[in-house]
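Subject: N-acetyltransferase structure
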Amino acid sequence: MTSATFVPHDFDPPTSLVTDRFVLEPLGPQHNEADRAAWMSSVEHIRATPGYPDGKWPPADGMTLERNLADLERHADHFAARKGFTFTVLDPADGDVIGCVYLYPASTQEYDVSVQSWVRADHADLDEPLADALVEWISADWPWARPDRYGR
C-alpha cells in the first residue's frame, strides 16, 4: 500500500457487518430520507460524540433532502473509488437508519484510518458497542493496523 492508496489494489472491501444490535451496509442514495431524519433528530448528541469536535457537523440548521442526497452520493462515489468507506447503521429489527460509520484516510502518519461513528440519541446505548465492534471488524477484515478512534 502506498501513501496514495487507501486500501491495496487487490483488497475486496467488506460490504456488511451484522450483529444482534445493528447492521452495517454501504451508505447510499436509497438511505436519503431515513439518514437525514436520523442525524437531524440527534444533532447535539452527535456533536458530543468523540470524533466530531469542531461543531460543524451535523449542521445545526439541517439541510434539504437534495443537499443530503448529494452528500450520500459523494460517499457512495468514494466507496466505489476506494477513497473512503461510509456505512449506514441499521436497526436489525426494522431496518431503520440509526447511525453512520466513516472509514477514511487518517490525517496524520500516526494512523492508517480515521474511524468515526455516530448513532441517534434514542440509540445512545449503542455508541460504545458500535465503536468497539468497529475495532474488531477493522482488525479482522480490513488492511489497517493503526485506527484513529478519536479517543475511544
